[in-house]
Each structure stands twice: as C-alpha cells, then as structure tokens.
Specification:
single chain, 404 residues, alpha/beta, Aspartate Aminotransferase, domain 1, Aspartate Aminotransferase, domain 2, 2 domains, 7-stranded mixed sheet, 4-stranded mixed sheet, 13 helices, 17 strands, AcOrn/SuccOrn_fam, PyrdxlP-dep_Trfase
C-alpha cells in the first residue's frame, strides 16, 4: 500500500488520513490509481447517497455547469424555489434556507429558534438544550451545541447558550425544559458520530409534547439521517413526531456541498430580510444536483429498496455478532445507517475491513459505522458482508485458534 504521509505537506495536519488516494468511482466502488477496488461503505460519511458518478447527477451537474454557476442571492434562483417546493411538500416544513454544509444548516436552525422568541417578545429565551454524545458540526456554535470536550479543547470559552443533558435522562430533561430562558431542544433522531444511538419513537413523541407544553421549539439535526438514509425521506417520519425546525445536508447533495434548514411558517417568522444570509448557499450548481438527488430518492420504489437491502445487511451482520462475539458485540441503527459495537478497538476493525477492500467509518462509543450508498444492490450486500466477515474472523480469537 502506498504511503502518502509527507512531513512537508502544506496542508493543515488536522486529519488522520488512511494511506489511500482514489482516482475514480462508480456506484459503491472506489478505485485507486494502481487499480485496486474498494467497496465504499462510508460514502463520504453518509454524503454519497447515490454512490459515485451516478449518471443522473453527472448529467444535471454538467448541464448546469454549461449554463450558470453562481449568482448570489441578490437575484432569483429558480432552482432554489423548485427544490424548496419539493422539500416542503414532502416534509413538515413550509420554509427553506439553503446552505453549503450541515454546520451552516445548524447555525441557521439555532438563529431561527432564537429569533422566533425575540420577535415573540421574549429575547431572554435563547438557551438550547442538547444531549451528551451529540455532534452538530465544527463551528464555534455547533461545537458548543455538541458539548464534547475533545472538540472544544483549545478554542477558548465555550459559546454560551447551550446546555448538554444526559442521553436518555427524562427527569433532567423535564426540569431543564421548564426553565424560562429555554428556546429550543436540539436532537439527532439517531446519533451518528456519537455511536449510532437511536432515540426511541416514543421519546421523540415525548419531546414533541414537552416542547408544546413549554412553548419551546423542537429542532432535529438530520444532517446524517436524512434523504433516505433510514429508509424514509427523513428519520423523524418513523416516529410521527415532526419538528419545528430541521437541519439537513450530506446526502441531499449526493456529493456536492450543500445543506438546508427547513422550518414551519410559524418557526421561521422572525427570519425577515437582512437577518441571515449566505454568499454561496443555494447556488445554481448545488440546486441542480439537489433536485437531481430528489428525482431519484423520491422515485417510485426507491425507499422500499433501501428498506429491503438494509434488512438484509442487518440480518447478515447480526449473524456475525452471534458467531464472533469477541469482535462484534451489537448491531445498531436503522436503514443504511448501521453501527457495529466493537469488542476490539474500532479503528482496528476499520483497518481490518480496509485490508479486505471495504471502507467504513469509526464513531463514538467504540462503534464502526457502515453507510453504504443507498443504491447498493443485494449482490453487493452479499459481497460486503463476505468482506466484513473476513475482517472480523481475522480479529477473532476463535478465528486465530482455528488458523493456528
């Protein structure tokens, strides 16, 4: 395997990169310059929702690239209106604000919630309740929202206005929500970075009721769970507990950087001209690709396909947990957002999978995330589970004894 570490690289040394460089991709496959093929079950951390070089996305991008790339929001951008209409028609929302990333979508969500109370005559209501283990982005506000020490360290005082609560502690949540300065509750329906920890549907319903009781807003971070990842367009649909505001990104661009903050008419009422903006957000290139992604994901039978292949993959992985309990302790997640709770260091399991030609992503709580493109086929699921089993068996004490 080629070694790419270079002590003289001009890049920031902020990434612990695997020693791999890819030249091209097709579907669920990535190919190095030397021609080695890897199954991409990380999908750019749930970004490449339709895999690599999807022909419909390529056609939409190249067609738009020959027309117009960027305008700024000083002018009408028809693709924005079309994508906003489709997203609001398919979800709880009435309004949409387009961004370049998930962190920006969360920033917009936070500002929307605070502004809602400001125009309602309660500017003191600005605090956001979040949950331990959450990940909401890397800006100063979103690392404060997540509250994880490893992301906050060295960046000065934590931005005020965010209170982290223990995950699953209902009494602590009820007490905190009753405080008069609380503006909103912010939660991921499934914590991705935090270890693929799902919030049960009844708990989301309880959050909805709690917010209604105290006049606070419910914000979902669906940056990782949205756009078909869990088998529904958005994960909140499994519970029926709709939010007031939601951040979406990653899969919505299929690999092109974009995000969106969605909100009800009431929640967005404070976001009037001049209160928020973005130079690149909603640019024509992004809108062309976003609409192309929805063409596929909202197409007949697509989400049913996601549900079917996800069930097959989870059943196969559950079998591995039964047969190699010293390596895999638990299979978590929903749809094609799957977590393997590892009994060995998760980075070791990720490396073993990579050696077998399959790419996965680590997460908190010693979990390995499997996030294949949503277009993965039944045959590719079988191939992937075969490679994962080879990696797991190689790390298993039982496997080591058999080979001795």
């Amino acid at each position: 395997m080629a070694e790419f570490k270079d002590a003289h690289s001009p890049l920031y040394d902020t990434y612990a990169r695997a020693p791999l460089a890819f030249e091209r991709g097709e579907g669920v496959w990535l190919v190095t310059g030397e021609g080695r093929r890897y199954m991409d079950f990380a999908a750019g951390i749930a970004v490449n929702s339709l895999g690599h070089a999807h022909p419909h996305l390529v056609a939409a991008l190249t067609e738009q690239a020959n027309k117009l790339w960027h305008l700024s929001n000083l002018y009408e951008i028809p693709g924005q209106r079309r994508l906003a209409e489709r997203l609001t028609e398919a979800t709880f929302a009435d309004r949409a604000f387009f961004t370049n990333s998930g962190a920006e979508a969360l920033e917009c969500a936070i500002k929307t919630a605070r502004r809602y109370h400001y125009v309602d005559g309660a500017p003191e209501r600005y605090r956001i309740l979040t949950f331990e283990g959450a990940f909401h982005g890397r800006t100063l506000a979103t690392i404060a929202a997540g509250g994880q020490a490893k992301y906050l360290e060295g960046f000065g005082p934590k931005a005020p206005g965010f209170d982290q609560l223990p995950f699953g502690d209902h009494e602590a949540l009820k007490q905190a929500a009753a405080e008069p300065d609380v503006a909103a509750i912010l939660i991921e329906p499934i914590q991705g970075e935090g270890g693929v920890r799902s919030v049960p549907p009844q708990c989301l319903q309880g959050l909805r009721d709690l917010c209604d009781e105290h006049g606070i807003l419910l914000i979902y971070d669906e940056v990782q769970t949205g756009i078909g990842r869990t088998g529904r367009l958005y994960a909140y649909e499994h519970s029926g507990a709709a939010p007031d505001i939601m951040a979406s990104a990653k899969g919505i661009g299929g690999g092109f950087p974009m995000g969106v903050c969605l909100a009800t008419e009431a929640a967005a009422r404070g976001m009037t001209p001049g209160t928020h903006g973005s130079t690149y957000g909603g640019n024509p290139l992004a809108m062309a690709v976003g609409n192309a992604v929805l063409d596929v994901v909202l197409g007949e039978g697509f989400l049913t396909h996601v549900q079917d292949v996800a069930l097959l993959l989870k059943q196969s992985l559950a079998s591995l947990a039964d047969r190699y309990p010293d390596v895999v302790g638990e299979v978590r997640g929903q749809g094609l957002l799957i977590g393997l709770k590892a009994k060995v260091p998760n980075v070791q399991l990720v490396a073993a999978m990579r050696d077998e030609g399959l790419l996965a992503a680590p997460a908190g709580d010693n979990v390995v995330r499997l996030l294949p493109p949503l277009i993965v086929t039944v045959d590719e699921v079988h191939e992937a589970t075969s490679r994962i089993e080879a990696a797991v068996a190689g790390l298993s004490l039982a496997g080591q004894r058999k080979s001795a």
